[in-house]
Amino acid sequence: MVMTKIDSKHVQLENELRKMGKVVVAFSGGIDSTVVLDTAIKTLGKDNVLAVIANSILFSDDEFEKAIHLANQLGATIRTIEIDYLSEEHVAHNTPDSWYYAKKLFYNQLTQIKDQLGYRFVIDGMIMDDLNDYRPGLRARDEAGAKSPLEMAKFYKSDVRHLAQQSHLENWSKVPSCSVASRFPYGTTLTEALINRVMLSEKYLRNLGFSTVRVRNHGDVARIEVPQSDIEALINQREQINHQLKQYGYGFVAMDLGGFVSGHMNEQLSHEQLAKF
């Protein structure tokens, strides 16, 4: 039987996990961490794997509940934690390096759990693509000594989706989610009210059928990003969308003609700021 490129990378992933022996998995319910958790359980056994799922104001309760449901389906041992990200001033003021400090809080909690319970490594779902973007969290990961087995096995996003589908994981086609802080310009002071307004707006739009959507918050203005293929559908429903988002507190509702762009707010950063991490 001829081994495919994905098969070869999967074998490498299993080998990297075997070297680690007993691991705490930072589990978000996204495709990447799901492949890591599923492979770790199958490779190391349930007793050697702990899925830690974090709840916080920066991610929706829906994502948290879905992650718990999925981890249970995979047969994982689960531990949930709460992280008060807004207690960290860099996160609360959404500085360009805020995600470094947020991830530092995150990895510190997971490291404490690892040490208390006798696991050997904290692992996450970082992939090769993450090396090509502005990712302050990579520095926090490295400082904490956490490992990224998918990255170590040279997995890209397309590889992860292929393996997830091949492994019959229910979320293989899941739309990526990220911290709600990414909806605000750097330097914005984040509050629970502002965050909830964005969360409500995006949930409303997802319920209308826009699975990939971002509501970027610019003071009194909501700037909606959807993929180019969904712009016409958004325009067709503009009246009800405009009305509903104003009910959530926005004074003006706009559509970004450029369409959805991941990490859009990073465009305002200087080369010096980007090079810092």
UniProtKB/TrEMBL annotation:
A Gene Ontology BP annotation from the UniProt entry: purine nucleotide metabolic process
Give the species. Lentilactobacillus diolivorans DSM 14421
Q: Which residues form a coiled coil?
A: none
Catalytic site positions: C178 (nucleophile and sulfur donor)
PANTHER family annotated for this entry?
A: EXSB FAMILY PROTEIN, NAD_GMP SYNTHASE DOMAIN-CONTAINING PROTEIN
Q: Which GO terms describe its molecular function?
A: sulfurtransferase activity
Residue ranges constituting the NAD/GMP synthase domain according to the UniProt record? 15-87
Q: Which domain of life is it from?
A: Bacteria
Q: What is this protein called?
A: NAD/GMP synthase domain-containing protein
**Which Pfam family, any one of them, does this sequence belong to?**
NAD_synthase
